[in-house]
Amino acid sequence: MGQSITLANLNDFIRGAAILGTGGGGDPYLGRLMLQQELREVSGVELLPLSALPDDAFAVSVASMGAPTVFVEKVPNAEATVRAVREVEARLGRRIDAVIPLEAGGINATLPLVVAAQMGVPVVDADGMGRAFPELQMTSFNIKGVRLCPLVTADDHGNTVLYDTVDAAAGERLARAVCVRMGGIAQIALYPMTGREAKASATPGTVSMAIELGEAVVQARLRNLDRCEAVAEYFRGRSPSRFAAVLFDGKVVDVRRETKDGFTVGRLVLEGSGPSGERMEISFQNEFTMARCGGEVRAIVPDLICALDRETGEPVTTEALRYGQRLKILGVSADPIMRGPEAIAVVGPAAFGLSEPFEPIEALQPR
Amino acid sequence: MGQSITLANLNDFIRGAAILGTGGGGDPYLGRLMLQQELREVSGVELLPLSALPDDAFAVSVASMGAPTVFVEKVPNAEATVRAVREVEARLGRRIDAVIPLEAGGINATLPLVVAAQMGVPVVDADGMGRAFPELQMTSFNIKGVRLCPLVTADDHGNTVLYDTVDAAAGERLARAVCVRMGGIAQIALYPMTGREAKASATPGTVSMAIELGEAVVQARLRNLDRCEAVAEYFRGRSPSRFAAVLFDGKVVDVRRETKDGFTVGRLVLEGSGPSGERMEISFQNEFTMARCGGEVRAIVPDLICALDRETGEPVTTEALRYGQRLKILGVSADPIMRGPEAIAVVGPAAFGLSEPFEPIEALQPR
User: Fold this and answer.
1) How close is the nearest chain A Cα to the Cα of B151, in Å?
2) CB B297 within 8 Å of CB B320
3) Where are the alpha helices (DSSP H) in chain A?
4) Can you tell me whether residue B150 is helix, strand or coil?
5) Which chain B residues contact residue A180 at CB under 8 A?
6) Do the beta carbons of residue B312 and residue B297 sit within 8 Å?
7) Hey, of B159, B167, B172, which one would you mutate to test binding to chain A, going by the most A CBs within 10 A of its CB?
8) Are residues B158 and A177, on separate chains, in Cβ contact within 8 Å?
9) What is the C-alpha to C-alpha distance for residues A251 and A257, in angstroms, rounded to an integer?
10) Is residue A76 over pLDDT 80?
């Protein structure tokens, strides 16, 4: 028996998931509302350690697909998500034993808990990336050979669309077009897999990690420590081989953002508080993708770039960025499963249209 | 036992289907090539009169979805269409007994014959509109309450997408987006129905009508009669209540055309050969939608507007329009099933973004 998500640790979880959202995944407040309502009706949602998932169990991922700028106006719909899961079940002739999160970050970290509560199954304490990414093929599941399809998109009106594509990239391309026509957001069920496949492809422990990340911020507040440093320290403490550090401390002086082809894309410029007036520029596609200082790359996907309020340590998502915000930018090395050559082909800079090559964040810092 | 389509009447059928295509449906030459190849392997494709379809038979429509401008470069794929039909069969747990054409015009009049030949089933001598229309909900099937879904789109690469939507308009909207992402053309299977439903909703006799229309042009050539008048006469002779007449005779002086959102849209201007220099302007969305002279509407959807070469009587499709062509514009009243108030809501001018109201073509001619 693993942990549970309950009303007691809800806020920690939501905050931690927003940190792992690396700027994407939508307003954490919405995820909190969704899950809070659900947790008032059930005592808690059981987290099943990845290692405890039986080899022959059947799990599926769920998510809200679309631009976070749209989520703000149109809250993800759990009922439609359950409908999408039922379609996958019907297609494969099998009932699910668990929900396995697609993303560790943002609303898509919360939605699996709501769906699992409604369907009466546990949530696997793992996900498909150890962070958030904007496209469906950008997962360790896909990198390790789990099929995306049958993929189902569903909307609030009762429309469902089921995809059977030759690869995950084709599924993303077709479903994104439908998502746009569904109003910029679609509820999806995807990556149906066995327990054996999950254990070979998922990033373990990321749901409980979100809870602990959120707790680390609270602990830092109680002890009046630097919240952002505390977050970095948590990452390093959890996995000593992991790089995690505050890369920049500054004020937002420019934000350009548009909702385009089903994504929130743009760039952010921060000006340092020191006398040198150094600037950091960060590009994003739902999530932050690359951070540069004076033309030099300091962090690039799949490594994590997180924006935290410099005083409170609260994560700031890309659609909530505003002129004048004081932020600390945290850089964290991605889970090793996301850094191999086969992973870089799927989630590396080129997948985001960036011409800069991937370099590990630990090699990009000034000495 | 009804007629068959064989190598002997292939050319007549293709020409007649292009006339009924009302400018849409793509280059008839491609349809001829597809069907010719198939007819070399089978002796003929059986046409089943609509009345001979048993009530409990199971039929499905097939089509190429997309902009005719794209069809020219990317020939509709019969194998993918069969795959789409198989998906519908699997979804409903039933094998088809016949293919029922969606459209009487263009490549989509030909494709059902190719698919039926490959699947070893007859083609019902009927269709869902008695002409061609650009959108999936624009059918007598839908007008009479047959469900569009399960609808399947398939591409050349092996991707299939299955839709279950609340209404036909939602199916069109979502599938159109996928069609664009599939490269501007998708093979589809749609409107699965029983024989009883077919008899209550289809436009009967339109496949054999295409053969006879094509024959009428040939007969006029043999007798050195006006080919375009002969086509009009055929329509009137087949159904005495039907209006059919040459509305304009002139030269193409302007064509504007673009491929937009999965359609070929634009307008055509003709200048009359007489001394008055009268002009006709015709708008189109895949098919011709409205013809005007000096600002006065002379024909409007769902009535048929056909462009024929003034000398040969060969139909000219919207993607083949060129400056300098000499054309006669034929206007034909739509099948009565397409003119009722419930039909006008689905296939009338407003459905094409036209602000002019529907008026029957017979009421629009100068006295």
Assistant:
1) 9
2) no
3) 10-20, 28-39, 68-71, 78-92, 107-119, 140-143, 168-181, 195-201, 206-222, 227-238, 341-347
4) coil
5) 177
6) no
7) B159
8) no
9) 17
10) no
pLDDT of residue A120: 95
Give the model's pLDDT for residue B28. Answer: 76
Continuous H helices in A167-205: 168-181, 195-201
Question: If you compute the radius of gyration of chain A from its CA atoms, what whole number of angstroms results?
Answer: 19
pLDDT band at A242 (very low <50, low <70, confident <90, very high): very high
Q: Determine the Cα angle at B253 with ends B248 and B254, to 5°.
A: 110
Rounded to whole angstroms, the Cα distance separating B150 from B188 reads 11
How confident is the model at residue A2, as a pLDDT?
62
Q: Please work out, in degrees rounded to the nearest 5, the angle formed at the alpha carbon of residue B68 by the alpha carbons of B250 and B21.
A: 55
* Minimal Cβ distance to B161: which of A87, A159, A174: A174
Q: Once rounded to an integer, what is the mean pLDDT over residues A50-74? A: 88
Output the six-digit token pair for B252.
Answer: 């193409």
Helix, strand, coil % over all residues of chain A, rounded to 5 = 35, 30, 35
CA distance B16 to B28: 10
Write down how long chain B is: 367
pLDDT of residue B66: 86
B contacts of A87 (beta carbons < 8 Å): 164
Confidence at residue B31, expressed as pLDDT on a 0 to 100 scale: 85
Name the residue among B162, B173, B182 with its Cβ closest to that of A162.
Answer: B162
Backbone angles phi, psi at B221, to 5 degrees: -65, -45
Write the DSSP assignment of A216-228 as a string of letters: HHHHHHHTT--HH
Give the residue-averaged pLDDT of A231-244: 95
- Contacts with B310 (C-beta within 8 Å, 6 or more apart), sequence order: B228, B249, B326, B327, B328
Pairing of strands B98-99, B151-154: unpaired
Of A87, A173, A181, Cβ closest to residue B174: A181
Computed from CA positions of residues B355, B359, B361, B366, in that sequence, does the dihedral angle turn out positive or negative? negative
Q: How far apart are CA A68 and CA A107, in angstroms?
A: 9
- A165 vs B contacts (CB less than 8 Å): 158-160
Provide the 10 A C-beta neighbour count for residue B14: 26
Q: How far apart are CA A27 and CA A172, in angstroms?
A: 23
Q: pLDDT averaged over consecutive 10-residue blocks of chain B (367 residues)? A: 86 95 84 90 93 98 85 79 97 97 93 95 97 94 98 97 97 96 94 98 96 96 96 94 96 92 89 87 95 95 97 92 96 95 96 96 93
What per-residue confidence (pLDDT) applies to A30? 83
Three-class SS state of B299: strand
CA–CA distance, A122 with A1 (Å, rounded to integer):
11
Q: Please give the Cα distance from B179 to B177 (Å, whole number).
A: 5
Q: Would you tell me how many other CB atoms lie within 10 Å of the CB of residue A291?
A: 26
Q: Of B67 and A312, which is predicted with more confidence?
A: A312
- Neighbouring CB atoms inside 10 A of B161's CB total 33
Predicted local distance difference test score (pLDDT) of residue A182: 94
Q: Are A109 and A17 in contact (CB under 8 A)?
A: yes
Per-residue pLDDT at B69: 67
Please enumerate residues of A whose Cβ is less than 8 A from a Cβ of B: 87, 157-166, 170, 173-174, 176-178, 180-182
Would you state the structure tokens that stand for residue A203, as one six-digit string? Answer: 């990033």
Q: What is the pLDDT of residue B2?
A: 63
Q: How far is CA A8 from CA A11, A32, A39, A124, A306, in A?
A: 8, 12, 10, 19, 25
pLDDT band at A264 (very low <50, low <70, confident <90, very high): confident
Task: Catalogue the E-assigned strands of chain B.
Answer: 4-5, 45-49, 58-66, 98-99, 123-127, 151-154, 160-164, 185-194, 203-204, 244-260, 263-272, 279-285, 287-293, 296-300, 304-309, 326-332
Chain A residues with CB under 8 Å of B182 CB are 174
How are beta strands B151-154 and B263-272 bridged, if at all?
unpaired
